[in-house]
Amino acid sequence: MNTPAAAPSILPDARPRLPRGVRLVHNEAQGGWVLLAPERVFKADQIAAEVVKRCTGEASFAAIVDDLAATFAAPRERIEADVATLLRGLADKKLLEL
Amino acid sequence: MTTDGRPNGHAGGNGEPPKPLHSPLGLLAELTHRCPLGCPYCSNPLEMDKRESELDAATWARVFREAAGLGVLQVHLSGGEPASRRDLVDITAAARDAGLYTNLITSGVGVTDRRLRELADAGLDHVQISIQDSEPKSADLIAGYEGAYVRKRALAIEVVALKLPLTVNIVIHRANISRVDELVAMALDMGASRVEIAHVQYYGWALKNRAALMPTRQQVEEAVGRIEPLRKQHHGRIVIDAVVPDYYARFPKPCVGGWGRRSLNVTPAGRVLPCHAAESIPGLEFWSVKEHSLREIWEHNPAFNAFRGTDFLPEPCQSCERRDIDFGGCRCQAFALTGDARATDPVCHLSPHHHVVEEQAAIREDAAYVYRRL
Questions:
Q1: Interface pTM (ipTM) of the complex?
Q2: For B196, nearest residue in chain A (alpha carbons)
Q3: CA B166 to CA B189: how far, in whole Å?
Q4: How far is the C-alpha of B252 from the C-alpha of B246, rounded, in Å?
């Protein structure tokens, strides 16, 4: 629990969402997508933005991975591992609820 | 204007802004200097803006729209105690309407439950409550306000009940430095998702109270050494951010991310500053939002361009590999400790004036606090 694993697993039916106080916005002056959080600003690259946009609390983790694999025509296992790592990292920073 | 956010190394000559110019990310809106507390480390200037000179809500609304147009993403509604303003809800709504992320920085004293709900309804994104210690008596003594601790804890309960994210800010100094573990445990108990362990920065009132606040080197090393174990222990439960005690640091902090580079500050009366302490440097004229747009000020106020970039820096900064990391440190501190705002921040062990920092850190007196009063 205390040590983040190298390949974190997320339950397929988890429904990730941004908590209150965390918002993804697009801002030209700052060069694209940014995740706004308490006293912190994180630049989100295109991929991260595509992932976070889908974290609505409605879609399950499995559905998000399916959607991304279809959208980017990429192997599902690879997408699943990358997205799990990203989401777990965000959750550890209190930027995402799983 | 650049839109790529790349760091910018060098200032242009003759008072013109360096190109490309960064967009500011954050705006500290000091809505008022009024505050019920009297914390002896307050970062407000000794000369404070009076109530009669405070900007009205409509002007703040314009400032927020101009800030958003300039690229600002987050506004920190601060003071003084921002809740001393009766129109705080209107001001908060205006910031949110401008598209800004709104952060309320409060002492926790003076925010009623009802007003907190109105703020949440207005779209407030985040609340930061300062708390002076985990020991109630000590906390109230530091705040100079009987019962402050209890009221802060009560407000935190309401913040969490409204599902607003909560940061607990704790300023560290000699009276509470031995309790870092307890302070983090208190923040967790309050339901905070983030805690700031911020060692006193010696400006304004804190500079005046330096001898009464200054910890020993051993105390500082023990406190700093606790941060990593606490982060591991509470990983995933609370984010611990630390502001380092710079009198005992080897290198200076990149103050506000560089002068006129990442953030700006608007005083209660409307003067725009690169940082909250900038008025302590003599000879700079700060423009007001009453006469200029925020963009005009950001781009053309000579005070903003005075220390932009790194061209003004002397040696040892100029040839230092950290020049573009810390920008020679803090201009206000350089002035306060050496009399020259262009000097290397004497916190840096490479500064020819570093001995001043060591001498000042050695002066510790158990004198009564000089409480901050308007």
A1: 0.84
A2: A39
A3: 12
A4: 7
